[in-house]
Amino acid sequence: MAANQDTFARLQQDILLLQGFKPASNNVTNWHGLEQIKTAFPNNIFPTGAIHEFFCTGQETVSASAGFISGILSSLLTQQGAIIWISTGKMIYPPSLKAFGVNPEKVIFIHLKNEKEKLFAMEEALKCDAVTAVVGQLNEISLIESRRFQLAVEHSKVTGFLLRQNPRNQMTSCVTRWQITPMPGEGNDGLPGLGFPKWDVQLLKVRNGKQGRWEIQWQSGKFVVTPKYNFERELVRKIV
Amino acid sequence: MEKRYVAIWFPHLATDWFEQQRPDLKNNAFVLSAATHGRMVITAANPLAQQLLIREGMALADARAICPSLQYFDDKPGLASQLWQRIAAWCIRFTPTVALDPLGGILLDATGCSHLWGSEEAYVLDIINRLKARGYQAKAAMADTIGAAWAITRFGNEMIVEKNKQLGSLISLPPEALRLDENTIARLHKLGLSQIKSLVTIPSASLRRRFGPLILQRINQMMGKEPEFIEPIIPPEPYQVRLPCIEPIARIEGIEIALHTLLQQLCERMQKEGKGVRTANFKGYRVDSKTVGIQISTSKASCNVKHLFHLFEMKLSALEPDLGIELFLLEATNVEDYTPAQEEFWKESPALNDQHIAELIDRLSGRINPDAIQRYLPAEHHLPERAFKKAGSLTEQSTTQWQTNKPRPILLLEKPEKITVTAPIPDYPPMNFRYKGQFHKVVKADGPERIEQEWWIEEGEHRDYYTVEDEQGCRYWLFRAGHYDEEKKPYWFIHGFFA
């Protein structure tokens, strides 16, 4: 039986490899606290060189997702590196990225209105292996286009993030699908004020991994999973 | 455009150089000599020696007989021509077209250059004075033709010959001014034709019969009736390659091959010269004698065939071959120095100044509006919408720090939007607000953070910013414009969304 387990584990590894999940070839050493949710991912590693999809509903959830993505970017972005951020309007406020550990000078913003142009820019950026990560605020994307993105990143090892607001098509080939909702922050030991940004992070889909739901806050330059809240009993919260 | 030429002549080039090396020689008569046919012959004499009637070509022994105190030195072979070429290269500062005069001296094509010095006199004087400052005696003159300028420099006294007035200044010059061989000149003198004046009145047919066609050509060149060309020392070579086709090309595959061939030729040359393309034109000359073309530009000088080809490829559909293109022409209109970066085998961490990122930006700006691609640097302003500025280039460094001590929203509305609020007491955050028809009850709030208007840029009310959180946990950035006032209710705005 033990031998079978071993065989299964090995086969599982092989399948993962074939599906584009390379073992820890990336040298991200400091995940800024994201290790706490790593059990959800295949090989216990946050999949870099893949496309991550974030579902948003309004400006509030877009900003929460942007904050969460910036936190991840800060781990991906080593001393040198570049990020391409394709946005719809000039909404992302560059100075605020600094609070999430991303140097705004390393981000090249591309402000586009036309969805077709955004798709073109996103694909070109994902193909360029000199880029660390690409964030795209793309609402509508078809299965074929998401396949193209996935093929591009498998070759270039760029990590892609898609911010999708009220998407109609939910059939995509993205590796993960997230939903980030803002949560009421906890004051610092009962002190007045807002406290740290806090999110209800739902991992709705992850290929070859486990779904999950955490309460994460961004605190002093890293993610902190606060275990107080138990989502298992709670019904799915209404999103604003 | 009417041409203007300057001829420069150095009467004592080699001796000037010797005087520079040994300033004590300035007050002495000295000559340079070299051995020819078993005797020492003077090759150059300084002005003091020339006053003693010592001439070039004289035997050194004769000269010493005339002047026993004459100092003499061995001439350095090739010295004069070396100096001559060096000064010609230096003269590039006056005009881009500098040529060596085969008879010794320098010719400048000064067309359209002298206005930078104010006037033609100032231009020629500057040349003479600058050469003098370097220790070289020079004579220079400006005229409409090379022949006239050359003649005036050596045999005339004027500095500027007015436009179309060369005949008056030239007719009294000796026939030597015509740049003819010695035999012809000797024969002219023998015939009593000691001035150009007497030559120009003779019918050209008789002149040709007696002295050959050269004399007519020289006279015509001097008068501007026949063109004369000079060979610049630095030939301006345009970065241009062309590909004529035997058969007209009308298919995209053919055009692609032509483009690739031309790019390879151009890039090979640029690579050797350490240059890179900033803008380039690809033109096709069609059978129906029309020209079609496309243009590309890069954000960083590049001589990468693949990259440039890709940039052109995106625009190739705009090139209409119609019945076919006979001649392809590729020209780099803007060229910059290019320092090739060493290729890395194992790239650890890509950087912004990476060639690949510059190429990516080029590819993107080929299709989308280049203004849409932006990078931001911090700016020293408190007002949030002015706290950052557009970076001029991919590698521009910031001069200040990003401010992180104050909370700033991750999404900032381009223009603050008006909201209706219920605010209890002056300077307290609102209890609730309504934005886009949605009612938000404020649970927690931080603030206020007062940001004053920058009066030197814009007049207006100051802003009191509050960070508020509603029941759902969504965080907003609101502000009240101006002071709280009982009579005039201040307006409230929403300006951003926190993460």
Structure commentary:
The complex is a heterodimer of chains A (240) and B (499). Chain A has 240 residues and is of the alpha/beta class. Chain A has one domain: P-loop containing nucleotide triphosphate hydrolases (Rossmann fold), CATH 3.40.50. Chain A is 28% helix and 23% strand. Chain A has a nine-stranded mixed β-sheet, with helices on both faces. Chain A starts with a helix and ends in a 15-residue tail after the last strand. The C terminus of chain A is likely disordered. In chain B, the strands form five sheets. Chain B has a six-stranded antiparallel β-barrel with strand order 14-15-16-17-18-19. A four-stranded antiparallel β-sheet of chain B has the order 5-6-1-7. In chain B, strand 9 and strand 10 form a beta hairpin. In chain B, helix 6 packs across helix 11, helix 10 crosses helix 11 and helix 12 packs antiparallel against helix 13. Chain B is elongated. Strand 3 of chain A pairs antiparallel with strand 12 of chain B. Chain A: It comes from Niastella soli.
